[in-house]
Specification:
0% helix, DUF7838 domain-containing protein, DUF7838
């Protein structure tokens, strides 16, 4: 898994290269935390189950 990922940042209102800040294995799958280096916005995703970076 890469240490960076292109994601849309709602604070910056554009696509940014997020930096991986943590990775943990849990029952639902692998939880990965990402942070936008420009504004500090954070995204958490757990494999295909949870992604806080996707709007409902």
């Amino acid at each position: 898994m890469s240490d960076t990922a292109e994601r849309y940042c709602p604070n910056c209102r554009e696509t940014r290269e997020f930096v991986r800040t943590a990775r943990t294995r849990m029952n639902l799958g692998t939880k990965v935390k990402w942070r936008c280096p420009e504004c500090g916005f954070r995204i958490v995703n757990i494999e295909n189950a949870v992604d806080t970076g996707v709007s409902a």
